[in-house]
Structure formats: C-alpha cells, structure tokens
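Slide 14.
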Amino acid sequence: GTRDYNEKEMAIREKIFSTIISVFKKHGAVTIDTPVFELKEILSGKYGEDSKLIYDLDDQGGEKCSLRYDLTVPFARFLAMNCSQYPSIKRYQIAKVYRRDQPAMTKGRMREFYQCVKMTEEKGLDPDVADRIGEYVKLKGGKELLDKLFLDESLLSNNNAKAGLNDMVLLFKYLEIFGVLDKISFDLSLARGLDYYTGIIYEAVTEQSGPPNELDETTVGVGSIAAGGRYDNLVGMFASNKKGNIPCVGVSIGVERVFSILLQKVALEQVKANEIEVYVMAVADGLLEDRMKICSELWEAGIKNKPKLQSQFSVCDRDQIPFAVIIGRDELNRGEVRIKDMRSKEQGEGGGAFIKRSDMITELKKRLGKDS
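Slide 15: predicted structure.
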C-alpha cells in the first residue's frame, strides 16, 4: 500500500502540487499544518463505517493515538481550539493521510444502497418518497433537472428536500456567474461515506471518466479525482460552546489519482527532473576554481547552475539543460567565456558564442528571459 517515487515521478508530483497551490492562493487561501497523528478520540465517530480503516497507535505512555485519516477532521479540531482567531478563514493543506484500506474494499461501493432503510429513517423522508429513491438516484443533469424536480409534489412535501432544491437553484445561479455551469452535473446518485457532511456534496471527475447517463448497479462507480462538501457541525464537536459551531465547506483533491492519470500521458524520459539552467564546464580537465567562482556568481544572480566534471555534454543533453558556460585557459586569459545553447542540434564541444567575461550574467539572463 506504499511506494517510492523516482526523481522524474517527483517532478510530475511537484508540478501537481504547485498548480493546486497557485489556484488556492489566487483565491486568498493560506496554509496551515497539523500533526500526522491525533488522539484517537478526536478521530473516533467521525467517519461512519470507514472508521475501521483508521490506523491506531499505542504510545509508551499508554495514550491511544491514531494516524490521520483525512485532513478535514484535524482542521476542524484546530479551528475549534483557535476559533476566536479565525472568524473566517480560507486554508489549504497538502500532506499525507493513512487508511487501512484493502484492495477488495475499493470494489462494489454500490452495496451501500442496502443501508437505505436506516438512511430513510434518519433523514425523515416520507414513505412514498423513500420508495422512489431507486428512481431518483438515476437522475442527473443541469437546470432542466431542477425544473423537473420542482414539479414533483411528493418530493416538495418534504421540507428538507425542498430546502435542498432551493439551495441548488442558488448554486446554479452562482455557477453561471462564474462561467462553469457547463462543467457541472447535478447527480442524485452521488453519496459520500463520511458522517460529517450536512449539506451539499460534490465530486470532480475527468471528462473521459464522467458518470454514465444511466446508473448501472452492477458496475463500480467512476473514481473521482476530488471530492468534498459542507459540514456545519464538525467543528462544534470539538468546541465547548456554541461559538465553536462554525459552518465549513471544503474539497479534498486526490493527488495520487491525478498523478496516475498524468503518468499514463507523459513519457518519463521527457520529464525534466531538475531546474538547472546552466552547466559550467571546462574544455579540458582542471580549472575547478574558475568554475566554482563562475557558479558562485551565477547563484548570486539567481541563475540555477552547477559545475560538471565528466561526460559533460551528454549530461546536458540527458538532463535537458538549456545552456552551458564553457571555459578554457586561453579564453579566460582573454577575459572571455563561451555560451552554448544546448537545445540546438549542434553537438560536441564546438559552437557557441564568445562573450566578455564581464557580460556573462547579463547575456545569460537575456537568453533565459530573466532580464528586467
């Protein structure tokens, strides 16, 4: 249930992280961090049937602890402990979570349907509405589905259902304003296995793996790459007063699933695992101190570089380094260095442009698009 990642795979993962973080920051989110383990009582009773997937730990002092199952419950605990400091907060967190999942447990999730009796009792649905759940869960669509549901008198007789539909009308209005309504499907078959959701829930899937028009109970549902929803009471579970009952809404992005999708589309040999922009090399052996001095100047100027000793040009090609600074004893005596574009078809130690040693940084910044 665990694995290692090589440098090229990590380059893909870091790209995923940076893309996600940039979007979060664009919307004003800040980051926090919580411990990788919590007191068991913090996590207990928050995940319904999935609670059995929590990793439990026994520390030397006899305290019962557990590895975090997700990042939501630890955040709710954090918010309850610091609610006076955060009347409102947009936060993100990227960290590992741990679940005692078994491969067989990822199949046949549709079996949750057999809990409908308990669900209908707990949610207070009218008997005739409960009997029609099998028909309702086949429905999905956009605004036209909402219009259809508002004609269902039996459904509207339930106050919770009516309130939910009114919320969806408002949500669709906002989605239209943001210009993303065409990417949304209102799917009545959607269900989440966690107990703390109290309102809308949602999942994100790729275009290639969108849900089918007709629900087929004999097949496993399409996996999502992100999921979340609204939970109004979770923070209050950890607070000692009503002020701690803070409504929240969130989303969890499945980095591993996104990574798996990208890994199938990307040729690993074409992935650039490092960010080196310039190799500093010598035509002949030696000149180590001169190379070190040039490297230091480039680092000071914000240019990512490193010296290379052996197989210099082949390494440049393999690691997709765009430029090389090549020095030789004669060039240094003339106060010159040679800059070569390693992306050109010209190979070997020849080629490149001789420039004054004093103009090296200015020229490299210009070629790298860093000149201000």
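Speaker note: The mean pLDDT is 78.
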